[in-house]
Task: inverse folding
């Protein structure tokens, strides 16, 4: 009963089957999607991220934000994603063509971020929230990212307009103020760039009632 | 329907065909006979069928006769 | 090796000297993999405790980027998957292959350099993750400057396995060998494809997610699962002294697993931005997994029937039986999770985390613990020094992991139900999960105690220089005593 050759063939063919089915075929179907230009408005979507947001995306990767936040909206009728305002339409493959790597995510320990740029457009909210999530979302289990900020002495001209406004228990010692480092700025630019408000032919926006 | 689709469809027919041929070949060669004899492979003269190995815990209560080495 | 002749191809002809030589030849290499694997387990446990604690005390150790949850969690995963699990798996593969092929461990320098390379690559990689160089791809986070080292190391392991297989003295193949051969051939294919299409030259957009889950599911299903099953198929009959209930059923189990498991990956993408055929084909394949799982479960159960009393005496049997039962439970949970209506709720929740630990811990890790309990005394020719530490290890890990996965599966389901109701604010959903997250930290401590007990026992076993433990006549080591045995012909 030396069926070694048969065994080897079986081992190779079984994996080859799904390699074709789940790697080659999806690459055939989705691997060369192009951005769409709306013929009425001339808007091209999606677009590559501008420089600062692209740097922020690298931080998002390096800090592992994608382990608690998804970036995919499930279609109407499957889950409550749209009802929660996480997106205006379900996500489609074309939304991700410029993403390296893709941050679909697998866990919603925190909310989905596909549309966070529309839901929270304010720099102030993002800075405050990143510095310590408790400032804006009491009871959140998101870790603070205070290491993206630095303490500076208040200058002779009084408090800087760039400083993060923090009240109560979160405020720094008198005479000091909290400034975002460039990294914090980049991360916030990235988060603000996340929007799902542009329609695609395969994913129209629902009509307003 | 480019060349790649042709390759994909062609290979998805060719692979199962080769697999089926290999199975037929193996059957003809007698490789599939007496399969269940292999179930005895973990055992040998030293650690034979019917004898428990790895008695580590609660040894004092283990039935004595099964522990002694045959010989 | 000339001393080993005469060998013949009849079943069951190894005598005492031959077994002793095989076991002794495995000593250095298997110990190298086991010990470095155990160190990764301890490191991974510390990282796990930190990550788990941070999830309900977010401010804890939050002042430095390298200690943030996203990095600690990732370092934990890679330390236990590629450190502990993979290295102990290779150690078990080495011993099983030598025993079943009935040859002493050949090409030791080849396999030892693989172990050293693997550890070097992994240290670089985990430090890289903590420093922020993660690739951001789940299960493939190790930075690209360390993965070629890992790939080279694994290539050596695969070559070694094939060499052993080629020079085997026992021409018949046992089911454990099929699983091992499949695992060592499948893994390099999976790993190289994933590295190429995700890290080295990323595919376009959503295709990456597809390749990611083809890899992510298969690294568990086609690498760890076969090694775990190979162990169960060997140690269960071996310990109780009775052949596997139905060898034909094990054939069915192997080939249906090979056919269906590798198509499962896209059930991680249910609801995602993909054409329906991709998701559906994986759901169908996931449901088909009932066939190999039930076939394996029936086979193991009918082998054990009438022998459960032996659990009292054998630590190996305890861990292996626990692992085999967990394989059935976690696989059926996996089938359920793949179905759309269940996924709608459970996807994106801690239910998935619990499921991963059913599979990787309650099944795979427990099975590996059991295998190590059998292999270590035989390769070192020493008995386990402490029965108490064995019991402590077993009960801490068995109780700990049940208290981890069962409540967290339920907590994840509640979390999913709350999330489905758009009227419940998100922070209220978070509140639902908190008791389960806290319980997880407690169970993490229990598991950690078990790990330390096991590690202490291994160290004790290795450093002690005095003779056999307690009993006057050799018992478990009967098969490996170097004296000549009466060979009945």
Result:
């Amino acid at each position: 009963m030396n069926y070694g050759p048969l065994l080897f063939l079986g081992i190779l063919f079984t994996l080859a089957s799904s390699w074709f089915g789940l790697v080659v075929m999806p690459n055939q179907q989705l691997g060369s999607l192009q951005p769409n230009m709306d013929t009425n408005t001339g808007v091209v979507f999606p677009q590559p991220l501008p420089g600062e947001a692209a740097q922020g995306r690298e931080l998002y990767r390096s800090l592992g934000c994608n382990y608690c936040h998804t970036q995919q909206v499930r279609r109407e009728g499957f889950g409550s994603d749209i009802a929660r305002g996480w997106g205006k339409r379900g996500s489609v493959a074309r939304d991700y063509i410029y993403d390296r790597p893709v941050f679909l995510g697998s866990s919603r320990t925190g909310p989905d971020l596909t549309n966070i740029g529309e839901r929270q457009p304010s720099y102030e909210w993002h800075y405050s929230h990143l510095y310590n999530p408790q400032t804006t979302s009491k009871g959140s289990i998101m870790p603070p990212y205070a290491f993206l900020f630095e303490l500076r002495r208040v200058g002779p001209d009084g408090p800087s307009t760039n400083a993060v406004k923090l009240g109560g228990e979160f405020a720094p010692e008198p005479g000091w103020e909290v400034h975002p480092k460039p990294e914090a700025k980049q991360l916030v630019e990235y988060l603000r760039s996340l929007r799902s408000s542009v329609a695609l032919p395969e994913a129209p926006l629902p009509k307003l009632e | 329907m480019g060349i790649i689709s042709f390759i994909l469809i062609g290979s998805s027919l060719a692979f199962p065909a080769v697999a089926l041929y290999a199975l037929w070949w193996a059957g003809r060669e007698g490789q599939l006979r007496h399969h269940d004899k292999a179930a005895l492979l973990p055992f040998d003269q030293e650690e034979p069928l019917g004898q428990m190995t790895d008695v580590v815990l609660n040894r004092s209560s283990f039935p004595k006769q099964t522990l002694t080495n045959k010989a | 090796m000339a001393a080993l002749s005469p060998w013949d191809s009849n079943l069951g002809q190894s005598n005492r000297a031959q077994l002793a030589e095989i076991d002794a030849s495995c000593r250095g290499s298997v110990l190298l993999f086991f010990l470095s694997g155990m160190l990764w387990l301890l490191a991974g446990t510390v990282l796990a405790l930190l990550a788990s604690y941070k999830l309900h005390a977010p401010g804890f150790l939050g002042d430095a980027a390298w200690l943030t949850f996203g990095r600690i969690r990732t370092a934990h995963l890679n330390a236990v998957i590629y450190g502990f699990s993979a290295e102990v798996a290779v150690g078990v593969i080495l011993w099983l292959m030598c025993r079943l092929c009935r040859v002493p461990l050949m090409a030791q320098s080849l396999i030892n350099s693989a172990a050293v390379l693997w550890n070097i690559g992994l240290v670089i990689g985990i430090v890289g993750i903590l420093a922020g160089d993660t690739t951001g791809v789940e299960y493939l986070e190790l930075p690209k400057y360390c993965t070629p080292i890992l790939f080279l190391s694994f290539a050596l392991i695969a070559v070694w396995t094939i060499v052993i297989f080629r020079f085997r003295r026992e021409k018949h193949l046992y089911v454990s060998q099929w699983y091992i051969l499949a695992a060592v051939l499948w893994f390099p294919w999976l790993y190289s494809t994933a590295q190429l299409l995700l890290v080295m030259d990323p595919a376009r957009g959503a295709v990456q997610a597809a390749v990611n889950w083809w890899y992510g599911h298969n690294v568990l299903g086609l690498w760890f699962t076969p090694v775990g099953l190979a162990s169960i198929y060997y140690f269960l009959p071996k310990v109780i002294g009775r052949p596997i209930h139905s060898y034909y059923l094990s054939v069915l189990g192997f080939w249906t697993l090979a056919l269906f498991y590798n198509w499962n990956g896209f059930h991680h993408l249910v609801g995602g931005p993909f054409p329906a055929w991709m998701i559906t084909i994986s759901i169908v394949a996931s449901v088909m997994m009932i066939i190999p799982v039930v076939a394996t479960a029936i086979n193991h159960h009918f082998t054990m029937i009438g022998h459960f009393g032996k659990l009292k005496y054998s630590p190996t049997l305890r861990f292996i039986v626990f692992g085999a039962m967990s394989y059935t439970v976690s696989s059926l949970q996996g089938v359920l999770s793949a179905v759309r209506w269940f996924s709608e709720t459970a996807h994106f929740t801690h239910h998935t985390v619990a499921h991963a630990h059913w599979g990787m811990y309650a099944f795979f890790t427990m099975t590996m613990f059991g295998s190590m309990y059998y292999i270590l005394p035989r390769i070192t020719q020493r008995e386990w020094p402490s029965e108490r530490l064995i019991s402590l290890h077993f009960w801490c890990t068995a109780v700990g992991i049940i208290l981890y996965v069962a409540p967290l599966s339920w907590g994840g389901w509640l979390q999913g139900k709350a999330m489905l109701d758009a009227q419940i604010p998100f922070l209220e959903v978070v509140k639902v999960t908190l008791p389960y997250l806290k319980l997880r930290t407690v169970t993490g401590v229990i598991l950690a105690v078990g790990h330390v007990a096991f590690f202490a026992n291994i160290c004790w076993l290795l450093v002690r220089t005095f003779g056999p433990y307690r009993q006057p006549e050799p018992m478990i080591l009967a098969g490996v005593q170097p004296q000549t045995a009466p060979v009945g012909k």
